[in-house]
C-alpha cells in the first residue's frame, strides 16, 4: 500500500496537539482527573489547564448551535482548539432528501469556531456499515463538496476503504484521512500512517478491547488503558513518519472509561517530547 507524502515538512516543523474525545464525563471526577464536586459546566476550563485541544463528541448526538458553541468557546483560553464531530444525521442516520439542509445547519452551528480560528477539524466518523460501494462513494463525495471550505477529516470504520484510490482522492481534496487504533477484528479499518493532507494528520485511539468492541455497551467498548510500549510503538512507527509529512498533527484518546483517556494522553505527550517532537 502506498504511503502518500505529498509535501515533506522540515524536520521538527510539525506541531502536535494531544487531547481526548470529549471532556465532560462525571466518572472523571470519581477517577480524580477533576476535583471533587466539579460540575459538567465547569469541566472545560479545568481540562484546558492540561490540554490544548479537545474533540467535541456531543455534536454527533445533536446539531451544534452557534450560541452554545460560542459560550463554550469562551470558556477555554485563547488559542485552545476544537475538533467537532459531524452530526449523526449526516453520517449514520442519513435522510437522502434532508441531508443537504443538515450540512448547512451544521456549518452555521460551528461558525463561531471557524471565525475565531479555533476549529482544527470536522470529524466525519462513518459507521462500520458504511462500506466502499458506489452509492456510498457518491454520497461521501457530495458530503465533502457540501462541507467544502471546512477542515475535514474522515474516519472510516470499514476496511474496504483502505485503498490507494481512496487515499488519492482524499489527497486531491486535501481532506485528512483519520488514523485509528482499535481492536484487530475482521472488517475494521487497519491502523495506518497514511497522510493525505499536508496541513493536518489526525489519529484516534479507541483502545483494543476486542471483547467489548461489538457489545453495544460503550463502557465495555472503550474500557482499555494503553501500555507505554503500545504508545511508544505508535510514536516511533507511525507518528514520527506522519510528522515528517504534515505541518500539524492531532491525537485524541477515546478510551474514556475511568479517565483512562486523559491518563494515556498525558503519557503520550511525555513520550512525544522524549523523541524530540514538538507538542503544543
TrEMBL record:
Pfam families: DUF72. PANTHER family: UNCHARACTERIZED PROTEIN YECE, UPF0759 PROTEIN YUNF. This is DUF72 domain-containing protein. It comes from Candidatus Desulfatibia vada.
Amino acid at each position: 500500500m502506498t504511503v502518500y507524502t505529498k509535501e515533506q515538512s522540515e524536520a521538527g516543523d510539525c506541531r502536535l496537539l494531544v487531547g481526548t474525545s470529549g471532556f465532560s464525563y462525571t466518572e472523571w471526577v470519581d477517577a480524580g482527573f477533576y476535583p471533587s464536586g466539579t460540575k459538567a459546566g465547569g469541566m472545560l476550563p479545568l481540562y484546558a489547564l492540561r490540554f490544548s485541544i479537545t474533540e467535541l463528541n456531543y455534536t454527533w448526538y445533536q446539531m451544534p448551535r452557534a450560541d452554545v458553541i460560542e459560550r463554550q468557546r469562551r470558556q477555554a483560553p485563547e488559542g485552545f482548539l476544537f475538533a467537532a464531530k459531524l452530526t449523526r444525521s449526516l453520517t449514520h442516520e442519513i435522510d437522502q432528501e434532508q441531508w443537504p439542509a443538515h450540512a448547512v445547519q451544521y456549518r452555521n452551528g460551528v461558525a463561531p469556531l471557524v471565525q475565531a480560528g479555533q476549529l482544527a477539524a470536522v470529524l466525519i466518523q462513518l459507521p462500520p456499515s458504511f462500506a466502499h460501494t458506489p452509492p456510498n462513494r457518491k454520497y461521501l463525495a457530495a458530503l465533502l463538496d457540501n462541507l467544502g471550505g471546512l477542515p475535514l477529516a474522515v474516519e472510516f470504520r470499514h476496511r474496504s476503504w483502505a485503498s490507494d484510490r481512496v487515499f488519492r482522492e482524499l489527497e486531491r481534496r486535501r481532506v485528512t484521512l483519520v488514523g485509528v487504533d482499535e481492536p484487530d477484528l475482521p472488517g475494521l479499518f487497519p491502523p495506518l500512517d497514511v497522510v493525505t493532507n499536508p496541513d493536518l494528520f489526525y489519529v484516534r485511539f479507541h483502545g483494543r478491547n476486542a471483547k467489548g468492541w461489538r457489545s453495544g455497551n460503550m463502557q465495555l467498548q472503550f474500557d482499555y488503558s494503553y501500555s507505554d510500549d503500545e504508545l511508544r510503538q505508535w510514536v516511533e512507527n507511525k507518528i514520527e513518519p506522519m510528522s515528517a509529512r504534515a505541518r500539524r498533527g492531532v491525537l485524541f484518546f477515546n478510551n474514556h472509561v475511568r479517565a483512562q483517556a486523559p491518563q494515556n494522553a498525558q503519557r503520550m505527550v511525555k513520550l512525544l517530547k522524549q523523541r524530540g517532537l514538538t507538542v503544543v
